[in-house]
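Customer escalation, tier 2.

The customer says the design service returned an amino acid string that "doesn't look like it belongs to this structure." They asked us to rerun it and document both sides in this ticket. The original structure tokens are below, unchanged.
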């Protein structure tokens, strides 16, 4: 009965995510005919800045909501999460205002101008929805979480299309995103009302003590998450800096369309892999054979879409999104091998979580961030956009192949312990 219930809950959440991503993908061919690559690029700059801070917007206090058995403590942690998100957003709003006022920004950023001040507002919206999602998770309200994700993706797409028909330019994409997030935020807060009251937000000694008792979350988890956000946003931000908004827009569409389905599958496989490895370790069963079988199966899943993208990316993107988006398909072709390797490696890196190798995982996160930044840092010689993406693809491929070898090494070390224990007994 428990297994059926667990499967149903996972399927509900995964279904909501899948429908949300499907709405994003289905709306893309319409949006690419309403907005130019440059307009998408200006919008991508803003969203990339948001994505740097999104993983840590609540200081990871939102994750801690699931831990206490007390409903009151969970509610207070929800309040802590909101206060942290609000404080960070206000700080970034003031910082952004100072930077925009005092410094000469690159052209693409200068065009966006004061619209960059919208990013702390969007960030706060993400903070509220994240905290509310974990809070609803606490009470096993999975269908509400799934519905919220669908509302968010659907309304962002609908508003963006409406503003595109009104010829609002990149501002239409930004406004569509903000309004879609407003409605989803209101929905999430409304669904949390049965368990919340205004008293949980009272600033008192109890709240500050609770914040301090969970301080490891912002100190360790949130700091590592910021690195993940930085390495995700870096390509778009650097592309806009070197080549302008149009190239950044082409890259952002390429990255979004290609990564969405693969990341969804990878996330699901990662969860199953984590559970399976933990069970095999608990039963003293070798992990390495399962690792090799998983690598083979994931390669079989990836080989067809990667091959299609590699050989026909430019043709497909031109047909689906319009002629001017063919270059985005060329980017997808160049990135295809790296995306395939990353799909396999990221699906199995949860093996390290099963081995409780938190320090190793932290080192990996730091390494990938440094690797990505080193690829895009060009102080003197500027190469073409396709060459830069090719360099990025090559370095990512090597990095994730090395990551697979690291996971394999720990699997071998784990199995040798079992063999030694058997011989000793």
């Amino acid at each position: 009965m428990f297994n059926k219930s667990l499967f149903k809950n996972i399927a509900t959440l995964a279904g909501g995510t899948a429908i949300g991503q499907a709405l994003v993908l289905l709306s893309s061919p319409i949006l690419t005919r309403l907005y130019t690559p440059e307009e998408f690029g200006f919008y991508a700059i803003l969203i990339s800045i948001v994505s740097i801070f999104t993983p840590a917007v609540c200081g990871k206090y939102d994750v801690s909501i699931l831990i206490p058995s007390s409903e009151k403590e969970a509610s207070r942690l929800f309040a802590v999460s909101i206060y942290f998100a609000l404080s960070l957003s206000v700080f970034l709003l003031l910082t952004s205002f100072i930077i925009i006022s005092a410094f000469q920004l690159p052209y693409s950023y200068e065009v966006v101008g004061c619209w960059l001040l919208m990013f702390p507002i969007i960030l706060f919206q993400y903070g509220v929805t994240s905290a509310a999602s974990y809070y609803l998770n606490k009470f096993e309200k999975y269908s509400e979480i799934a519905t919220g994700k669908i509302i968010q993706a659907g309304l962002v797409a609908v508003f963006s299309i409406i503003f595109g028909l009104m010829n609002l330019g990149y501002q239409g994409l930004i406004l569509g995103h903000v309004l879609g997030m407003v409605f989803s935020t209101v929905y999430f807060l409304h669904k949390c009302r049965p368990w919340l009251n205004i008293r949980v937000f009272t600033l008192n000694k109890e709240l500050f003590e609770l914040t301090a008792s969970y301080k490891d979350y912002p100190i360790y988890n949130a700091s590592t998450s910021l690195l993940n956000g930085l390495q995700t946003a870096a390509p778009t931000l650097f592309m806009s800096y070197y080549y302008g908004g149009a190239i950044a827009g082409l890259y952002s569409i390429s990255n979004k369309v290609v990564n969405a389905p693969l990341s969804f599958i990878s996330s699901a496989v990662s969860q199953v892999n984590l559970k399976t490895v933990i069970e095999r370790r608990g039963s003293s069963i070798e992990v390495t054979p399962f690792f090799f079988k998983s690598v083979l199966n994931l390669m079989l899943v990836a080989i067809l879409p990667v091959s299609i993208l590699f050989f026909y990316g430019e043709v497909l993107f031109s047909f689906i999104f319009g002629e001017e988006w063919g270059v985005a398909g060329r980017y997808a072709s160049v990135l295809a091998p790296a995306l395939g390797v990353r799909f396999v490696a990221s699906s199995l890196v949860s093996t390290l979580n099963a081995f409780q190798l938190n320090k190793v995982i932290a080192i990996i996160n730091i390494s990938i961030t440094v690797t990505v930044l080193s690829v895009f840092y060009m102080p003197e010689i500027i190469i073409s956009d396709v060459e830069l993406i090719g360099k990025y693809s090559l370095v990512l491929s090597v990095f994730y192949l090395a990551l697979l070898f690291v996971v394999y090494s720990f699997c071998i070390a784990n199995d040798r312990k079992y063999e030694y224990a058997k011989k000793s007994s």
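Tier 2 assessment: The sequence is consistent with the input. The chain has a mean pLDDT of 86. The radius of gyration is 22 Å. Sent an explanation to the customer and offered a walkthrough call.
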